[in-house]
Each structure stands twice: as structure tokens, then as C-alpha cells.
Design a protein that fits this description.
The chain has 196 residues and is of the alpha/beta class. It is built from eight helices and seven strands; from the N terminus they run αβαβαβααβαββαβα. The protein has a seven-stranded mixed sheet with strand order 1-7-6-5-2-3-4, with helices on both faces. The mean pLDDT is 83.
Length: 196
């Protein structure tokens, strides 16, 4: 309890705002997605409704039933002309298969591996060598986002499987999250170029 004491105070908010350039947003709606199936269904529904963009950052993506179902929804979005971008963590993805990522690339999704392993020896900054992307943020049309702890894998989305929690967010904060994604994307593209 002592560890979290004071986190919800105005002083704590002022501290975080001053260090991370955060800002208060009004007009947002949060809805919990407490089960894996509800969270997967929401992602697929949003991807199928996307009209301009899908931006997703995730630790890793497996080509199991969940991964292939979500990949198919991304490919359907690409067929409708939606911009679809994915950032994944190169290190953790290297311990999984690449079938889903290849399917995404084949249908035109722009896929970017964060901190490519092959470039580690070329990067002088030792901290950057071990840096990982651990977010799981799914943003559609800059208006709605899902965030939480689920990677794309049956264990995270199956009923009675691994327990994680997501929330769906609608409102101005989703636009802010999209702006952060796009800023990270630009930065990671530079890092990838340096690594190759």
C-alpha cells in the first residue's frame, strides 16, 4: 500500500505532467474488456470498421487461431484502403514464429520490428541494445484505442487462459495516443536504418 500512496493526488499529477509533457483530456470514455474473447472481438470489430488507419504496437504476435484471425481483419482493412502499421519487438518475436507477420506483409501491412537484433553490435549505445517495446496499444482512426497487457496469442485471448486486462478508450486521448505512436514510428524507422 505504501508503494502507491499519493499516486492519485494533484501533486503526483503535476509531477508526471512536468516530466512527460502530459495533458489532461476531457470527453473520454473508458470501457473495460475484462475477458480475452471480448477483447479479441473488439479488436476485430474495430479493424473491420476502420476507415483511415490502424496503428498497433505489441510485444509479439503468434500465428495461432487468435493471431491469424486478427491478421485477417488487418488484411481486410488494407483491402479497403486503410493504412495499417504494426510495431513489434524484434527480440521477443524472434522466439516466436513469423507466419502471421509474413501474412501481414504480404497483404500490404507496414510491419516494423523494434530494435532489430542484427543491429545490436552496430549500436554504440548499450542501453538501446537492451531496450524493448512492451506496450500493447491498438488505435483505430485516431478515435478509439484498446490498451492493456495482451500480446497476440491464444493464451491471452482464450477463455480461462492467461489473465490480462484491457480497456477500450474513445475520445481525445485516442488522438494523443495516435500522435505518440506516429512519433515512435518515425524514431524507430531511423533506428532500424542505423541497425541495417
Amino acid at each position: 500500500d505504501v508503494c502507491f500512496e499519493g499516486l492519485g493526488t494533484l501533486q503526483a499529477a503535476a509531477f508526471w505532467d512536468s516530466h512527460f509533457s502530459s495533458e489532461e483530456n476531457h470527453g473520454n470514455v473508458l470501457e473495460p474488456l475484462p475477458t480475452g474473447p471480448s477483447s479479441l472481438d473488439a479488436r476485430i470489430m474495430l479493424a473491420d470498421q476502420a476507415t483511415s488507419s490502424i496503428h498497433f504496437v505489441v510485444l509479439y504476435w503468434t500465428a495461432d487461431e487468435t493471431g491469424l484471425a486478427l491478421a485477417d481483419s488487418f488484411c481486410r482493412a488494407k483491402e479497403r484502403g486503410v493504412e495499417v502499421r504494426l510495431i513489434f519487438d524484434s527480440f521477443y518475436q524472434s522466439m516466436s514464429d513469423h507466419v502471421a507477420l509474413e501474412r501481414l506483409r504480404d497483404c500490404g501491412v507496414t510491419v516494423l520490428g523494434f530494435n532489430p537484433i542484427g543491429g545490436w553490435l552496430k549500436v554504440a549505445d548499450e542501453v538501446r541494445r537492451i531496450e524493448r517495446v512492451h506496450e500493447k496499444i491498438f488505435i483505430v482512426d485516431g478515435r478509439v484505442a484498446i490498451m492493456g497487457g495482451r500480446n497476440v496469442n491464444n493464451h491471452y485471448f482464450g477463455e480461462g487462459q492467461w489473465f490480462d486486462y484491457d480497456v477500450i478508450l474513445e475520445g481525445p486521448a485516442a488522438r494523443s495516443m495516435q500522435a505518440i505512436f506516429l512519433k515512435q514510428w518515425d524514431q524507430f524507422v531511423v533506428w532500424e536504418r542505423e541497425a541495417n
